């Protein structure tokens, strides 16, 4: 019974982790390619990596500089 | 012809600045946040502790319709915020950096410029809403109970109208001001004002756009499309069209004045 519950649990939680992972990866690729960002570049690295869920979003909204 | 070129340019740009990737993903997260956390609430309470032994926690059983409304409730706050922040610089930013001047030096009509931007945003937002609700629908069926596909499509269509209004508002402020932050601020303030007005004059403003989600709930409960929902939808579409028309006018005047 316990094992059964664990299995269900992962099927539910895994997509959330996957989405968060994709967000971090895409943000990191974009960050690495960017010539300059709004504010110091290294700061955005820590925000993307360490701020849960919201880090990559914050980077996409505020960190990317226009062109 | 010119319009489709501008539209394609917008779509390409939204791909380059990764909006096509992060907006749908964030909308999915927002959509599934509440269905999952409510489902695991008993376990969460248990693991946090502080409950005396033998306490039986009675939590309400949610119907699929209520779960969908949870997702819509999150959309109304976090979702709107994301859309406003995503669209705040779409014209204002271009004018600040001078890109819009590069485009408008060519014989591009203001109408095409504005409506292409509006349509490109609309496609992203409606697409993301569809994907997000699909995820929410998956969890609803998995954890709570059956919800028909038709109901889902109806929800996406009618709630998408609300997002369309948000975009139109944002575009409108974009043509008025050059500072993206100010655009976002004013858009959110306007939406809050609209909701206050709707609540104060609830008895006369039955067709207010802010009532869309409560009418959608009614639709799910009664399994038919209430006439108030149609009314709200028409009002929302009308306001959006007026806002876009006003945007074109103000933009024309601003650009010619400069």
UniProtKB/TrEMBL annotation, chain A:
The chain crosses the membrane at residues 7-29, 41-62. Coiled coil: none annotated. It is found in: Cell membrane. The keyword tRNA processing does not apply. One of its GO terms (cellular component) is plasma membrane. Keywords: Cell membrane, Membrane, Transmembrane, Transmembrane helix. It is a multi-pass membrane protein. It holds the Pfam family PLDc_N. Residues 22-64 form the Cardiolipin synthase N-terminal domain. The keyword Membrane applies. This is Transcriptional regulator.
TrEMBL record, chain B:
The keyword Transmembrane helix applies. The keyword Transmembrane helix applies. Signal peptide: none annotated. The chain crosses the membrane at residues 20-41, 72-93, 114-139, 151-173, 182-205, 229-251. One of its GO terms (cellular component) is plasma membrane. GO terms for molecular function: ABC-type transporter activity. Keywords: Membrane, Transmembrane, Transmembrane helix. This is ABC transporter permease. It comes from Virgibacillus profundi.
């Amino acid at each position: 019974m316990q094992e059964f519950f664990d299995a269900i649990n992962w099927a539910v939680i895994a997509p959330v982790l996957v989405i968060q992972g994709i967000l971090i990866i895409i943000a990191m690729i974009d960050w690495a390619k960017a010539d300059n960002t709004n504010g110091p570049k290294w700061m955005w690295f820590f925000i993307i990596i360490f701020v849960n869920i919201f880090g990559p979003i914050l980077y996409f909204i505020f960190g990317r500089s226009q062109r | 012809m010119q319009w489709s070129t501008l539209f394609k340019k917008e779509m390409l740009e939204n791909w380059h600045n990764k909006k096509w990737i992060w907006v749908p993903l964030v909308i999915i997260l927002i959509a599934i946040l509440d269905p999952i956390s409510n489902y695991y609430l008993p376990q969460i309470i248990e693991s946090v502790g502080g409950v005396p032994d033998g306490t039986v926690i009675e939590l309400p059983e949610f119907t699929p319709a209520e779960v969908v409304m949870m997702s819509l409730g999150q959309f109304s706050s976090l979702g709107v915020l994301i859309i406003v922040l995503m669209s705040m610089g779409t014209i204002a930013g271009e004018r600040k950096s001078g890109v819009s001047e590069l485009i408008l030096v060519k014989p591009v009509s203001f109408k095409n410029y504005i409506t292409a931007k509006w349509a490109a945003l609309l496609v992203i937002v409606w697409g993301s809403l569809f994907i997000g609700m699909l995820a929410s629908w998956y969890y609803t069926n998995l954890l709570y109970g059956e919800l028909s596909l038709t109901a889902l499509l109806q929800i996406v269509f009618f709630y998408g109208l609300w997002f369309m209004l948000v975009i139109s508002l944002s575009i409108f402020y974009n043509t008025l001001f050059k500072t993206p932050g100010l655009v976002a601020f004013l858009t959110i303030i306007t939406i809050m004002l609209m909701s206050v007005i709707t609540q104060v004059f609830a008895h006369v403003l039955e067709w207010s756009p802010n009532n869309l989600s409560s009418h959608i709930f009614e639709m799910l409960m009664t399994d038919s499309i209430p006439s108030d929902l149609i009314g709200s939808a028409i009002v929302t579409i009308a306001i959006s069209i007026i806002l876009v028309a006003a945007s074109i006018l103000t933009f024309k005047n601003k650009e010619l004045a400069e």
